[in-house]
Amino acid sequence: MTASFKPVSVAIGDLTAHPANVRSNSPETYDPENIAHLKASIAVLGLLQPLLVQKLDGKYAVLAGGRRHAALKELVAEKAAKGFTAKTKVECRLVPEDCDVTTALSLAENITQAPMNAIDEFEAFARMMKVDGQTPETIAKTFGTTVAAVKGRLRYGLIHPDIRAAARAKAITLDTMKAFAEHPSQDVQKEVFEALTTEDSYLQAYTVRQALKSRGVQISDDIGAFVRADYEARGGAVAADLLEEHSVLEDAALVEVILLEKLGAAAEEARAKLGLAWADAMVRYDYATMADYGRVYPGPIEPDEAAQKRIDEITAELEKLQLEMEDEGLEDDAYTALYERVDALEDEARDLQEAYGAEDLARAGVIASWSGGQVTLHVGLVRPEDKQEASQSPSGNQTSKDEPDPGEIAYPASLAEDLKTERAMALGAAMAMNPEATLDLTLFKLVSDVLASGMSVTQAIKIDARKECRSHAKMDEIDGASLEQVAAAHDALDLSWLDEARSPADQFAAFRALEAAEKATLVAYATASTTQSCFARDRQRDSLMHDFEIEIMPDIRAHWTPNAALFNRFKKAWLLKILGEDLGLAQEAVTLASSSKKEIVAFCDKLFAEPFATLTDAQRAAVAAWCPPMMQTAGSATDEAPTVEISEPDTGVAKAA
């Protein structure tokens, strides 16, 4: 049937719903939150597409355009919306009353429109600003969204045209294209794009971001925030981004000069306060280079009357705090606050009872470096040329402390739960990097769960087309190795078959045409995303995953490294026990016993990030292998398992996890 529908103007109040509208059984389609963007657009631009209506019982029933009709009614109901009343007329197309294909007409209008290409949307927003003189604020008002969301789209629309063209041609993925927005300069984007595409290799978003980091420092980076005021005061060039936090300090050399100056000032302040002989600064503290340096420590002194009075006050408060910390019902946050207070008091008491000897002050110094987003001071260092004289410190502190009695390590419930999450992330990375084995596991579970009798072969993975949501108390601080590995695996996926412009049937056809290895990689990545929070598996409870994990992740340290986020949640005594007993660093544990927990955490963080050149082979091997016992794949014997203060519900999922 070929029909031409007569144009007609109809008052909004004379419009009603049509029973043949294909969306009539989906009332959620017309919920206010689902039509907010459309309402905002009509309020600013008017009704751009006429409604398809049919005369029913004296009213004009909306056959196609129900969401536009709902938006118009919302505007009428809002007294603040100017120009929209029940009598306001809108353009419609009138379907004859004797038409016998009304449902087909409604369906055709809803399904024949091709979805908007993401790049088209980004570029349209950019043109609205460049050509039409719009601002992010006016665009946000037009489409009923936030200014931040508009700026996000605008950033992608302003990526260099050659890069956008490559994304349209499927030469690079949309995620890779978006990565170029990390630097607001199109010239820099083009240079990096050309440099990375000279080789015949697949360009990944991760590679792009790493390359752009060498072209400047974002002001949201910890170093960028630290030096920004001085940088701008000296006239350093800034590549401005629509989102300020993505603006870039382009002169990396000037950034480093200012950083070293500020580090030097911090080192000099510490030198003057302690009376040391020299001060220096370095951006990154190189433990290999510093291995030839010695170190002296403050020794015990006799406190004067005022100092002794304060020490007595501290001792009394520490006893009180210790009693509070023994309360088994204490929440984790409260326990942490008490522990931090204890650390601060212990530091104060130590400073009142210890001091550097005169000879040590005459040769020792301090180096300031940048670590973990802040200035770190390395105090009491002795240069190699002065090391011989300083080998026997007058303070005598090297032998003045007895080896600590750490006590048994008992992991708090909250820490145990988070370590489970970190282990699951590492396992997911290992699975994504071993596609063939993971594909076999996935297919085996699917088939066995359907064909075998009895319980599921394992509940450790969720093969039900749902990505596992992982929670963690300090996700932003944990080691990111597994996240980077998974991101790299994702960037390497060929998702061209999943083009949103295609129908599901076309997507499936494209998927079936993929090579077997490509399918294995996709299935492996999807399955890896389902790994649940877990510790090492017990062979009797889940022999399948126990053996599988040993095969693909024999060493969790390939995907995860202990860092300050973990050590900060350990007691000081635990850290000293790990250093002295697990890692064979007994002398270091004795020396650090007089240090604050913060200093011990920093030491452990650096030790695991880059094992010191002075370590013996045995110590280096211990550092390379160490992790909380229950996180290692092979696990530990039941009688040697670490204490974990956690109870789990007696369910199959909890046991499998």
TrEMBL record:
Domain ParB-like N-terminal, chain residue ranges per copy: 8-111
Record has Coiled coil as a keyword: yes
GO biological process: chromosome segregation
Location of region: Disordered: 384-410, 634-657
Coiled coil: 304-355
Domain of life, per lineage: Bacteria
Keyword terms of this UniProt record: Coiled coil
Amino acid composition bias (Polar residues), ranges on this chain: 390-399
GO CC, alphabetical: chromosome
Pfam hit, one: HTH_ParB
Name of the molecule in the record: Chromosome partitioning protein, ParB family
